[in-house]
Amino acid sequence: YFFAETEAAKRAKEAGLPSYDTLAVHDFESGDDFAFQVIEKLSGTAIKKWLEKYPDDEAKLLPQIGRMMARLHQIEVDGFGAFDNQKAKSGELVGLHSTFGEAVRAGLPFNLDVLTKENVLTAEQAQDVTTLFDDTDTLLDVPQAVLVHNDFADWNLLTDGEDVTGILDWDECVGGDPASDIACWSTFFDPERLKGFLDGYWQVAEKPADFDERFELLRL
What we know:
10 helices; alpha+beta; 4-stranded antiparallel beta sheet; 14% strand; 3-stranded antiparallel beta sheet
């Protein structure tokens, strides 16, 4: 996915976000070879490490994280879901699915099957989830895809203690709905963290009328 990551990071940097330039990508060829990329080093400390040392800075940094994600979601892309890595080689960032619903459901049957077999969900619950993500649900009707990081967590963001100074690890980026990125972020942390994050996010973006409902669906 290195070429998709490269293009996503490039577009974020071009939009004024603290992302990086990719200096080289080597594709796997054969045998004992392996793929790798060489990227620009960014300044700052991982927010996770920073807060371990300065926990009182969390209240200040959470709105900054929210604002940074909202700025990211201003970058529009074509298509939904994972990006076509081959097209990204030529600078195209194109999702593999034509609708957001298709992208959301791409891995849903497999995941539900695993959760059912592991007795996390009952068969009835799995069917209920499948029904919730049916294409008739207007909450999945997203007219325009935006660049979604999908792992916008403390360990992938750098800070100087005042702001976000770097965005790393684009290997899960997709074309999606802004609420899906927020929902993903919320699953990493205690619920109490969400308010500070959203306080910053809504300073940059306008809150949709159906956000709360959409957020809960995508969090599921």
